[in-house]
């Protein structure tokens, strides 16, 4: 069975974004969770997908121009992820979205469809986010691993990752390492409480 791996950037106090809806502390949005060689598809929530599609389309279409979200040109890693993302099937969990600009984008209407996707042949699946999607899929028992890049700062106000959990979940830390800028990449797996 394919594993569903959620990967997110969070502050030390568990925020995935600041009060403006953006994680201002993140320098680049490139894929840096050591996932690229392990995955062949991505899943996103319907709330996150439009911004994700817009951001990576801008990277692909104007690789030498400042990006609307950051005001900076894309990093080499962002250019690499933009190329990878454009060739990788994406699935959007949404009952309301019906169209996408990217040709390799499909829609999942029920959690059972995601469970079925996990049963198909292939590499692992990267759950890009957002926070509501991650917490609902943890509650549904569909996430097999979490990779968190934890930034060494307290964001204060903003959107926390784990506010809508229905019940308590145990996680087992399987590895952690320091990465650029003092952040840490931690890998966790569900465990029995």
Secondary-structure-derived class: alpha/beta
Describe the main β-sheet briefly.
Answer: 8 strands, mixed
The CATH homologous superfamily: Dihydrofolate Reductase, subunit A
Q: What do the pLDDT scores average to? A: 90
The number of strands is 10
What is the CATH architecture descriptor?
3-Layer(aba) Sandwich
Oligomeric form of this entry?
single chain
Strand content: 25-35%
Instruction: Please state the overall shape, judged from the principal axes of the Cα atoms.
Output: globular
Question: How many helices?
Answer: 4
Name of the level-1 CATH class: Alpha Beta
The percent of residues in helical segments reads 10-25%
What integer value in Å does the Rg equal?
16 Å
């Amino acid at each position: 069975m394919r594993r569903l791996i959620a990967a997110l950037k969070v502050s030390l106090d568990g925020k995935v974004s600041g009060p403006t809806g953006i994680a201002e502390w993140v320098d680049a949005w490139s894929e840096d969770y050591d996932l690229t060689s392990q995955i062949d598809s991505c899943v996103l929530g319907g709330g996150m997908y439009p911004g994700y599609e817009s951001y990576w389309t801008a990277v692909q279409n104007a690789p030498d121009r400042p990006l609307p979200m950051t005001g900076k040109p894309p990093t080499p890693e962002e250019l690499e992820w933009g190329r990878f993302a454009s060739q990788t099937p994406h699935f959007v969990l949404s009952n309301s979205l019906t169209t996408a600009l990217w040709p390799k984008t499909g829609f999942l209407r029920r959690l059972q469809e995601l469970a079925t996707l996990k049963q198909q042949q292939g590499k692992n699946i990267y759950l890009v986010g957002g926070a509501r999607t991650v917490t609902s899929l943890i509650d549904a028992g569909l996430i097999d691993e979490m990779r968190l890049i934890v930034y060494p700062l307290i964001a204060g106000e903003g959107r926390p990752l784990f506010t809508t959990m229905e019940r308590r979940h145990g996680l087992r830390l399987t590895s952690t390492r320091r990465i650029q800028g003092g952040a840490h990449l931690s890998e966790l797996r569900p465990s029995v409480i």
